[in-house]
Structure formats: C-alpha cells, structure tokens
Amino acid sequence: MIRFEHVSKRYRGTSKPALSDVDFEIQRGEFVFLVGASGSGKSSCLRMILREDTASEGRVVVLGRDLRGLSTRKVPYFRRHIGSVFQDFRLLPNKTVFQNVAFTLQVIGSSRAFISQAVPEALALVGLAGKEKRFPHELSGGEQQRVAIARAIVNRPQVLLADEPTGNLDPATSVDIMQLLARINANGTTVVMATHEAGFVDQMQRRVIELSGGVMVRDEVGGGYGDTSALPSLAPEPARGAAAVAALTAVLELQREIAETPPTAHVPAEPQPESQPAPAASTETRGIPIVAPPVDLADLGLPDVASRLGLDEREGGDEVGPTS
Ligand SMILES: Nc1ncnc2c1ncn2[C@@H]1O[C@H](COP(=O)(O)OP(=O)(O)OP(=O)(O)O)[C@@H](O)[C@H]1O
Ligand SMILES: [Mg+2]
C-alpha cells in the first residue's frame, strides 16, 4: 500500500541528505509509528507519501502509484485517498467546525446531499456532534484536533497520515486522540503516525519504523520507542507523570478491548496494478498481514457511521485509485 524503495532525499542547499536509502513497505490496515529524534526525517517521509516532496533517488509507491510518474494534474486526485493531520491542527479560523470539515468535500465537488450526510457522521465519529457551529477559537486543543481528524477522514481516505498529532496536547487529551486514531485504524484505515511520544509507542505495541539522521535503523512489529536518550525528557513534573500513566492505562484498556473482539472482519488484498512483485523483504517484519478486528461503535451510539463513512469497506476509487 505504501512502499519506499531505497529512497533518498536531498534538499537543495543542504550537504547532508534528509533521507538515505530508506526502504520499507506498509500493508493495508497497518498502524505504523515513525519515530526518531528531531530532524531524523519523519516529516520528510510523510511529505513524500503525500507527494508534497519527491524522492531524489529511489521510488515511492503509494496505493499502487509510482509517485515519480504522477503528473501534477493528477496529484490532487491522488491526495483524495490520503487524509492528513498535523501538530498545529491547520483549521480555517473563519469557518465553523461544520464548514471546516465540509470544505474538503466542497473543493472536490461533492454534492450538497452527500456533504450534509457525511460531515455530521464524521463529526459524530470523532465525538463532536453538537459543536458544528463553533469556530476553532471556541474549542479546546483536543477538540480542534478532532475537527482536523474529522476533516481528514470525511472523504473516506484509505490512508491517514498524522505528523505529531498530539504534539500540542496535554497527556490526557493526547490519549483521547490516540484512541480515536486506533479506532479509525481498527475500522480498516491505514495509519502512519510520526511521533516523539515514547509512552504511546511503548504501550500501543504497533509496528515501529525508526529513523536516525535520515537512515532507517529499525523496523519492528510491536516495538517500543527504543533509544529515548535523544528525546526531550517526558517526565519532568510529577503531575504530568501521573496523568501520563492514567492516559496510557486507558490506551491499554482500549487495546485489550480490541484484542478481545472476535476477528470476523477481513482486510481485502491490496490490488497491485503493477506487474512487478514487491521487492524481497529485508527484515523479518515485512509482509505480515494485518487483520483489523471490527470495533463495535454501538457503544458510541453510532452503529452505522463507520460503514457509511467507508471506514470498513473500500470502494473502487476514481481515476487515480488503486483499482483503476
Ligand atoms: N524544505 C527543506 N529544505 C531543506 N532542508 C529540509 C527541508 N525540510 C526538512 N529539511 C531537513 O531535513 C531533515 C529532516 O527533517 P524532517 O522535518 O523530516 O525531520 P523530523 O524527523 O520530522 O523532525 P521533527 O521531529 O523536528 O519534526 C532535517 O535536517 C531538516 O533540516
Ligand atoms: Mg517533523
């Protein structure tokens, strides 16, 4: 679904490459943490997946498309399949919650009928029903990030990229956002999240790709953050430590809940428009099929939201979709 083939990236005017020979493959339905010290290349990777940047060497293949060969005209269509959220939320300050989420759909020409159905569903999924008329400055940071996530998923993307989505939030709010991302992933959306939050990475036990100075130094299923010596201290104050423990306990509970749900759903195989087989895996962690267990949204009072949002069933895409 997302493949980096020996990717290097050199930004103009810099001597050291931002990425060097990065090589990995992410399967449909995976939740992957991208970790590493500041400047290690996490955001550069995400920008390449979104085709905001292109590789200097190597290939980036996303949803069956070699992004090098994707014409500028097709880039906006390609991006419809990829939602993204950032540390700084990036909401439009003069638009309401509803308008912020609807904006994406308006830009791509969705019908008013679709918008009036999809936007409330996305807002309900992120727990913001009833706040449609608020402006961003009338929301907490966590609520603003929820709006950003609703905006990112309202168009039913197959991939959700999150670049430090909890970077501006307190630990308790961060765990809410982590739970939301885990729920979106459990419904079938592939999630790639860049983060410095060692605690979440350690507790969530998902796949971890670690970068160091642009070099991929680890690709591990169910890993922890690893060498945290390069990270800023995460526990300077006792109060924060207590909140973080409570937050992580909540994540663990969610994980247990997901693990105990009978795995009846399956993730369809990724269509591969290319005739070439994927390159041989060079670590043990490659190619492990991830089966996302279904999450019962009935307890949220949203029994049909996931299916209507397309979070659990994928349709054929438009002209740049993987099935075209
Ligand atoms: N547009 C750019 N022009 C030149 N150099 C860049 C550009 N963007 C990133 N870099 C450099 O590439 C390297 C990787 O940056 P990147 O933003 O990917 O790191 P990061 O892992 O996301 O860091 P952080 O954790 O601080 O967000 C850094 O050395 C950075 O200075
Ligand atoms: Mg970054």
Automatic annotation (TrEMBL):
InterPro entries in the cross-refs: AAA+_ATPase, ABC_transporter-like_ATP-bd, ABC_transporter-like_CS, ABC_transpr_LolD-like, Cell_div_FtsE, P-loop_NTPase
Membrane topology qualifier: Peripheral membrane protein
Pfam families: ABC_tran
Keywords, sorted A to Z: ATP-binding, Cell cycle, Cell division, Cell membrane, Membrane, Nucleotide-binding
Protein name: Cell division ATP-binding protein FtsE
Source taxon at top rank: Bacteria
Domain ABC transporter per the UniProt entry, residue ranges: 2-238
Binding partners and assembly: Homodimer. Forms a membrane-associated complex with FtsX.
Function: Part of the ABC transporter FtsEX involved in cellular division. Has ATPase activity.
GO CC annotation, single: plasma membrane
Family that this chain belongs to: Belongs to the ABC transporter superfamily.
Transmembrane segments: none
Region feature (Disordered): 262-302
SMART domains (UniProt xref): AAA
Subcellular location: Cell membrane
Leader sequence residues: none
Main location: membrane
Molecular function, one GO term: ATP binding
GO terms (BP aspect): cell division
